[in-house]
């Protein structure tokens, strides 16, 4: 038996942020990054909160939030005695807020539930609707996924006005992360009819809109569709988990500090080839499902071999159009560092919770081979 549940209420479309006007007499703890405060962009949120609320902003957030920052946030959240937590930002801010809320409850043993609202300012992680949080042990160079329904936001607010000024590199990095979420959720061993429907729709939305927002960030219609795609893909992988692409990306990201979506995109063609395993079996489930995705966006796919080749080539072409690196080497990772790190990355990837859902069970040697293929140009 499978239990399908979507417990996050989604506010989307024009003036979605105005829903915050309904909150009164609350102690609102806002978790965000320093740029949102320095740029004044956080006013888009605080201006919607009545003066009858007490507000505290915690902005000591960095990419790949380390345990040390989570600890500081827990102390501040507990001291403030918040009734509402509002996470505003990309995946790092939302993931950090999730971890803060989780550990605060554990430490204080509080009985009253803190309302958790997630407001993404990038269209990529889908973190606003997932029970995932990734935190980093910077000293050990390891990322730890925290997975529990206790960290699911009760409300997610999708307002495209918050992403229309995102730089092109952030836009494409996060957008390609969405594409990776779709592909991995779709071929996951835990996929089902519900996650498949979500992954298919998000996949189509990405291909229809990512080039548009890359070329013109002010295209608010395309921005909203990418924002929706990110959320829909998040719903898909919250049901089905992800796979080896993210398992390697989590491990390699902790070592090389490459933006997550960019790293996923470097790996993606190699992961598709590995999972499809065309040389040995062109009719495994993953190969057939990749072929179906190719058909959904109008690619030639008369059989799995052709469909997978079409899909892979199209992703490589898209990566090139978006001016993204096609290898670790192209990103600037030195061979010496790569060789020193690949064994540790492979071992960490094997232990990552997302790898468990991959359609093909990898060995350490398989992962090292994928890494080596990804070091130089496709």
Structural features, described:
- It is a single chain.
- Helix 3 (67-80) packs across helix 4 (91-108) and helix 8 crosses helix 13.
- This protein folds into 2 domains: 9-162, Rossmann fold, CATH 3.40.50.1970; 168-375, Dehydroquinate synthase-like, alpha domain (Up-down Bundle).
- The strands form 2 sheets. The chain has a 6-stranded parallel β-sheet, with helices on one face. Strands 6-7 form a two-stranded antiparallel sheet.
- It has 14 helices and 8 strands.
- It is globular.
- The protein is α/β, with parallel strands linked by helices.
- It has helices spanning 34-38, 43-46, 67-80, 91-108, 168-187, 193-215, 220-240, 244-256, 260-276, 285-296, 304-321, 328-331, 335-351, 364-375, and strands at 9-12, 27-31, 54-58, 84-89, 115-120, 132-137, 142-147, 155-158.
Question: What's the structural blueprint in terms of helices and strands?
Answer:
Layout: E1 9-12, E2 27-31, H1 34-38, H2 43-46, E3 54-58, H3 67-80, E4 84-89, H4 91-108, E5 115-120, E6 132-137, E7 142-147, E8 155-158, H5 168-187, H6 193-215, H7 220-240, H8 244-256, H9 260-276, H10 285-296, H11 304-321, H12 328-331, H13 335-351, H14 364-375
Parallel strand pairs: 1-8, 2-3, 2-4, 4-5, 5-8
Antiparallel strand pairs: 6-7
Helix pairs in contact: 3-4, 5-6, 5-7, 5-9, 6-7, 8-9, 8-13, 9-11, 9-14, 10-11, 13-14
Organism: Loigolactobacillus jiayinensis
Domain Alcohol dehydrogenase iron-type/glycerol dehydrogenase GldA: 11-159
Protein name: 1-propanol dehydrogenase PduQ
